[in-house]
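Obj: model holo form, ligand = NAI.
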Amino acid sequence: MFNKVAFIGAGSMAEAIISGIITTSFLKKEQIFVMNKNNKERLENLSERYEIHCDFNKKQLVAGADLIILSMKPHDAQEAIDSMKDYIQEDQLIISILAGVSTDYIAKLIGKEIPIIRAMPNTSASIGLSATAVTKGENASEEHLQKAVSLFNTIGTTSIVKEEEMHTVTGISGSGPAYFYYVVEAMQKAASEAGLDQLVASELITQTIVGAGEMLKQSGETASTLREKITSPNGTTQAAIETLDEYNVEKAMMDCVKNAKERSIELGKLM
Ligand SMILES: NC(=O)C1=CN([C@@H]2O[C@H](COP(=O)(O)OP(=O)(O)OC[C@H]3O[C@@H](n4cnc5c(N)ncnc54)[C@H](O)[C@@H]3O)[C@@H](O)[C@H]2O)C=CC1
Ligand SMILES: O=C(O)[C@@H]1CCC=N1
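Output (holo structure tokens):
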């Protein structure tokens, strides 16, 4: 499907994707090329661990790559793309995982009518459990989109969305893992205050969140039904949920997603 894949940016998301495509044998190690801004030690480390090619020479890195993955931070995109756009050809496919940044804007920076797929994975990619959403830019075909789906399926599930939905997706599944970690941190604090052993608490909380996730996935029941089944009249769960309602946690969660979405829109405009 791809002969050579070049990652521009070698941070945590690039590593998660690399790990997925190697573990599932989607690509051979020697087909993967990576660069970052100036962190030689990081590249050496990646090269040793995954046996992939690392190179600071942009021309060499991009030459012959049928897929280029933009995996730098949004604020670094302009400089990174400026310094390599002359080596990019219209028959190459670009996948961007940059939060907030439109395919049109990337095409404008590159200055060519090039196929671009925009994707929003999440950090669970590092264990093959990302919820990734993808969308295609103006010059990308259905075939390009399907190739991207195949790639992101190596690191979890992949959903196809409209480009205008990508900001919402970022607020839901891109940043989403952090919301659950936040809840876990709070539960750990409560357990600690109550004097429960930290290791025991951690084991119980982790298995509780994994179990709830699997119930959502496997039971075929809605979150609301599953919650009601736990909530005995005048029981402990009712007392707990009434507290969440008193604090208006539902509204807080809705605003949390909304603000992440707004920030994604801003990130796109800041470029
Ligand atoms: N961390 C997350 O949960 C998610 C992040 N994203 C997006 O993924 C992208 C990368 O995020 P992370 O991996 O967390 O960032 P990171 O900070 O870990 O990595 C960024 C990489 O880009 C490199 N870079 C910066 N300027 C460069 C340049 N001029 N040329 C080449 N490389 C350059 C850096 O050296 C670094 O290797 C961001 O655009 C972010 O919006 C998307 C989904 C989830
Ligand atoms: O916080 C961020 O900007 C990135 C994008 C999605 C998750 N993390």
